[in-house]
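A reminder from the course coordinator: this example appears on the midterm review sheet, so study it carefully.

Given structure:
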């Protein structure tokens, strides 16, 4: 199985990422025209990891996205449900605590992380609401969530060009550089079907995150969404009664 369907069955998605693990980072560099490094820096700045903090990096893949948090002195847990990605990550960065886990059923206690982040992975989760709820559960009160995900360009001409690139240019390029090009056809389709910026913000608020905001990168091709876990006293009265 090298391509998942848009109903995002976990076994299909995991198998797809297993198949692309070896060349995943290289392929991303090529397909994103190098912009992914700029996006990773924006995520690192938004997370603001500090020494002594605990950071959970979901959909961490080979751990490339986790390194900036560890370099900042935070205890960083890269978590992914693709065993192929985890194996490649352990081979490259053996000192990091790579952990297998499903975003909808995280294997961590409540309130243990100062920050939770996920880059280009929430789109591949079968139940986004459940995942956002789990992220809230494992974050301490006052802790923060940072989501980096493909989104919808805000300028109409760019949106048209980008859509054409996804469906026409991306698959041929992927065939040249990826170990499993069919997987990138799924990725292009999943990007096109993903909610826009206000839609994802509403999902965060519905899950219980507060101070929800977003920042567009590269004209909205990618968006950073942020939220804060409220302290018990900050929750609405209806939540307290429940």
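Designed residues:
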């Amino acid at each position: 199985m090298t391509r998942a369907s848009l109903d995002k069955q976990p076994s299909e998605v995991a198998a797809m990422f297993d198949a692309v693990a070896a060349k995943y980072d290289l392929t991303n560099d090529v397909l994103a025209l190098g912009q992914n490094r700029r996006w990773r820096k924006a995520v690192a700045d938004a997370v603001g990891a500090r020494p002594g903090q605990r950071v959970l990096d979901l959909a961490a893949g080979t751990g490339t996205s986790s390194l900036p948090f560890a370099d900042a002195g935070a205890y960083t847990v890269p978590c992914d449900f693709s065993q192929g990605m985890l194996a490649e990550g352990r081979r490259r960065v053996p000192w990091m605590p790579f952990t297998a886990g499903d975003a909808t059923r995280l294997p961590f206690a409540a309130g243990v992380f100062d920050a939770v982040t996920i880059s280009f992975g929430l789109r591949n989760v079968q139940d986004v609401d459940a995942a956002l709820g789990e992220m809230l559960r494992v974050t301490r009160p006052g802790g923060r969530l940072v989501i980096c995900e493909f989104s919808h360009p805000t300028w109409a001409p760019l949106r048209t060009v980008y859509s054409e690139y996804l469906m026409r240019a991306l698959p041929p390029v992927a065939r040249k550089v990826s170990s499993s090009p069919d997987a990138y056809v799924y990725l292009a389709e999943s990007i096109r079907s993903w909610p826009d910026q206000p839609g994802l913000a509403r999902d965060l608020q519905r899950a219980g995150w507060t101070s929800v905001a977003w920042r567009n990168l590269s004209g909205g091709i990618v968006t950073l969404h942020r939220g804060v876990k409220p302290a018990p006293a900050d929750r609405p009265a209806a939540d307290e009664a429940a």
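Residues 1-6, 237-242 have pLDDT under 50 and may be disordered. DSSP finds ten helices and seven strands in the chain.
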